[in-house]
Amino acid sequence: MATVILQNDLIESVADALQYISYYHPVDFIQALNTAYEKEANPAAKDAMAQILINSRMCAVGHRPICQDTGIVTVFLNVGMDIQWQGDMSVTDMVNEGVRRAYMNPDNKLRASILADPDGARSNTGDNTPCVIHYQLVPGDKLEVHVAAKGGGSEAKSKFAMLNPSDSLVDWVLKMVPVMGAGWCPPGMLGIGVGGTAEKAMIMAKEALLEPINIQELREKGAETRAEELRLELYDSINALGIGAQGLGGLTTVLDVKVKDFPTHAANKAVAMIPNCAATRHTHFVLDGSGPALMEVPSLDDWPEVTREAGGNVRQVNLDTVTREEIKDWKPGDTLLLNGKMLTGRDAAHKKMVDMMAAGEELPVDLTGRFIYYVGPVDPVRDEVVGPAGPTTATRMDKFTRTMLEETGLMGMVGKAERGPAAIEAIRDNQAVYLMAVGGAAYLVAQAIKSSKVLGFPELGMEAIYEFEVKDMPVTVAVDVNGESVHKTGPQVWKQKIEIGNLLK
Q1: In angstroms, rounded to a whole number, what is the distance separating the alpha carbons of residues 283 and 149?
Q2: pLDDT tens-digit readout, 202-225
Q3: Which residues are catalytic, by number?
Q4: Which CATH number fits domain 314-490: 3.30.1330.10, 2.40.50.140, 3.30.420.40, 3.20.130.10?
């Protein structure tokens, strides 16, 4: 008798899985990150990992998103050929209905980030659908489902190349990883697909990220295939680059490297690389006709109890009274605790403000002497002031930076990861500063936000201009008034330290 999969069983299972991964990290990721945290020697990188671990435990307890970017959903379906379906929707529609229910759940509403007409109006679909689905028909009478929610910051750093057959894959990866910067929120995983065709390599790279973190077990066992040899070589070589957590410099940049390969044409060597960020979100379930899948709740004992260690370079900053003279004393790598009122704005708000200034129109807010936070928060639930509100990738605002600093009197910016050369020059020329908040610690950051109100562009939803009042919001000075960037100096210093350490072994 064939297995019958009920329409609502798949819908409910997808919805439950997406809620589950929004607030539960995979346990293997937490264990690997904690191991990296314990051995980290760079205080700034160690603090960044501490924030991610503390945030993860808070999310597991509070059932709120690990990151404000709750991702674009990707689903891999292995469909048993003996399955029968009961329902009036296509399987694609069932999966999308599951996504819709998950993201609109009033108890833990997730941020809708999917925009239709991607090169045109870019209008938000409102419920994070449609998702990306991959099907494979396999023998058997079960439905195997892998569900992932991939943040835009890490997806944006995906790389692809059609190498010549004689080209070194390792050399290409080691050239690409530094170019990726820190916008993918390391430490995380790298998925690499080798062979097949262009699209096959990309799909394999994405699939590889669904596998468990087990690089240390592989090291103990020893490599048996070329793919396993590549994993070990790349893991060591990438970490030797010294990029470190959040790009601040340190011992751990990747927690694992996954490699999948496929036979290819004699003239080709397709190589795809996709990073998974510190907000690693994926799970797996099987439907056998007995009802919806039950997600196994992990034990909180699997999460380490980490506390942040305040160093001697931590200082309190009052955003309501801070002066340009005061920010001249801030040095790259300094930890600040921000207090007072701070504006928010990201891609859409920046474009709108720049267009208004070009047209001679008055902005909805006065930016003189203010700080702006690059964020698109999750909607609040229950008694929250704001939902998880971690930083978005700052480089997307680089092209607006000079205009914003010179035309508005903006004093500082807060975002995720590094700034590009043009933005750094604008910061230096205008004696401004750029501060970095930790990507992957969105719920922790949100606890520092004590009030929130929309001041401009309410039609932009999560991309509107808010005013947050914050208390002790932790940030790191990333670019000072002289244009010195911790994302350049940190990795350089730690690459040298790792090289010296390896020589002394």
Answers
A1: 10
A2: 999 999 999 999 999 999 999 999
A3: 350
A4: 3.20.130.10
